[in-house]
Amino acid sequence: MPVPVATDPTPADGVHLITGSAGFIGFHLAERWLQEGRRVVGLDNLNDYYDPSLKEARLARLTQHPSFANFRIGLEDRDAVAELFDAVKPAVVVNLAAQAGVRYSLENPRAYTDSNVSGFMNILEGCRDHAVSHLVYASSSSVYGLNAKAPFAVGDTVDHPISLYAATKKANELMAHTYSHLYGLPATGLRFFTVYGPWGRPDMAYYKFTKAIFEGQPIQVYNHGKMRRDFTYIDDIVEGVAAVADRPARPNQQWDPANPDSGTSSAPYRLQNIGNNNPIELMRFIETLETAIGRKAEKQMLPMQPGDVQSTYADIEPLAADTGVRPTTQIEEGLERFVHWFRDYYGIRA
Question: What is the reported pTM?
Fold first, then answer.
């Protein structure tokens, strides 16, 4: 018989396991918790999807904290993940490790099923075997796929993904619900909306734009700039993740199986959007970036790319109601901070 999860968890106590600890969000979350005096264990395979030296630099900062330990493990390594759970017995698990990227999934689909599906299964099993107080895991705004209703709400149907990446993220949500229902595992899925900021991901558009502008190269503007994104600054994302992690999902006592709400359940299961609730047109975003850099971009206008969606827009009212968290960083401030970090990290003086 499965071991039931504690009904009165104390997630602030014990070890906090972050998978994807060398990644963008994982690094920032780990820094926050370490500064709060929490014990953090990281898991990351440091793959070369983007520059591993950036991941190493993030880890170098984290390892300055005596309360941090990191293990170089891939989620798909079942035995290694199980051994890690046995060794550290985490109280809280935040699963941010995944094969990221929409366009890359068109070229390397098996990388997504290996990490995002098989790997997530290993995390679920570790949480079940060790009665973890709360599993928080990264989903994505990409699950909304062909949905046109805005803003996107967690109760919306998400049955029409348009990339394999999105499909694996929806699979995570379904898998987590199954474990919440069968084993009482409190699980919260976070649908992130276009995260940006210092120490960010080089595969993201804002990072590529910045690099190209400094190098005097043209930037590729998809869908002729007619895109809208709910750009969300990293500090606002981490504030939301940390608040959610300290509030384990609980059963919705009013959940009605005859009229099911997909964002909650009769099991201890929850979905939340974490976005800026303020979509920005891509051309305005580029203009703001140009101002922060002090240079104009040469633009190469291109058509819509396979797997992309035209607009994202998060309904964050459930998150605000549950945690009190709302984003506060305006795009001008966020991009200025990112450009300042970019100049410093790459030693750009001019």
Answer: 0.93
